[in-house]
Amino acid sequence: MGRSPCCEKAHTNKGAWTKEEDDRLIAHIRAHGEGCWRSLPKAAGLLRCGKSCRLRWINYLRPDLKRGNFTEEEDELIIKLHSLLGNKWSLIAGRLPGRTDNEIKNYWNTHIRRKLMSRGIDPATHRAINESNNVPNVKTISFSSSSVTTTEETKLNIIECKEEKICTMNVKDQERCPDLNLELRISPPSQSSSAGQLLKRRSLCFTCSLGLMNSKDCCCTYSFSSNCSSSSASSGSNSTNGDIGGGNSDFLGLKGGLLEFRSLEMK
DNA sequence: AAGCGGTGCAACCGCGACGAC
DNA sequence: TGTCGTCGCGGTTGCACCGCT
To answer: Which bases in strand C are touched by protein, i.e. have an atom under 7 Å from a CB?
Structure first.
């Protein structure tokens, strides 16, 4: 079954928006509010598709947008949220007032990835690059807590079945850090990690997994004095937010408690 | 001054989710 | 319950800008 195009492409403009188009869009939304994106272009007298209008409004024209450079605090917050949520840019954006998912996505790809790499952290896994390399052929799925939604559980089950691989959930991890970064590792039994590697991963607290080794917020049992002190660990002194829910801070507004995933859905 | 490569960002595209019928 | 239309998300692309040679 084919999908009908979202708009009549033959009669729509593409590319950069002109000032006049912006003005028309702003005026229309001020008068009628957001929504009905499909019919908006015609109503506003714009030769654009609804999607294009929505994107332009959300990413550029919205009055509550905060333009300008990201602060150091925003940087760290994005990193933490990404380690928790992955590429869920809209959820991350929901925690950064005035920032859009597109903006954060771009910023991640252009700045933060490089920043983490320079710290010796794999931006995809938030683990030390050396450690990531030592665990071949392992799929890591992170989810936030036992309060993970049914949908998320379903997804995990589907993945489990599709991969036809053994899933193991480390219950001890859940007990130690009930609120974050619990991992479902999927790997062939023959490639299960060595005891030493397993110990290292088990003992990696959230703060350290962000590359903030030796931070005051570190609560892991594994010492980084030998392995990680060389990977710009001193940057951990910049950490102000602490670990999620496990420390004294109120990261994500979840003081000391379980992370309620739904609470992140701001939209 | 021109050419070139790297970077940043706005915009597009395809697909999944969801609601209406 | 299934189909269809719309919306929203995440990945990708294209282009302008900038610095270097």
So the answer is: 4-12, 15-16
- How far is it, in rounded angstroms, from Cα A233 to Cα A193? 25
Q: Which of A104, A205, A184 is nearest to A141 (CA)?
A: A184
Q: Write the class of the CATH domain A9-61.
A: mainly alpha
Task: Please provide the size of chain A in residues.
Answer: 267
Q: Measured in angstroms, what separates residue A189's CA from nucleotide B6's C1'?
A: 43
- Predicted confidence (pLDDT) per residue in A235-264, tens digit: 333 333 333 333 334 444 433 333 444 344
Q: Backbone phi, then psi, for A155, in 5-degree steps?
A: -60, -45
The DSSP output letter for A259 is -
In this structure, is the CB of residue A59 within 7 Å of any atom belonging to strand C? no
**pTM, 2 dp:** 0.59
Residue A140: DSSP 8-state: E
Candidates 3.40.1180.10, 3.40.50.620, 3.40.50.2000, 1.10.10.60; CATH matching A72-123? 1.10.10.60
Q: What are phi and psi of A48, to 5 degrees?
A: -130, 160
Q: Which two tokens stand for residue A3?
A: 């999908």
Integer distance in angstroms from the first to the last C-alpha of chain A? Answer: 31
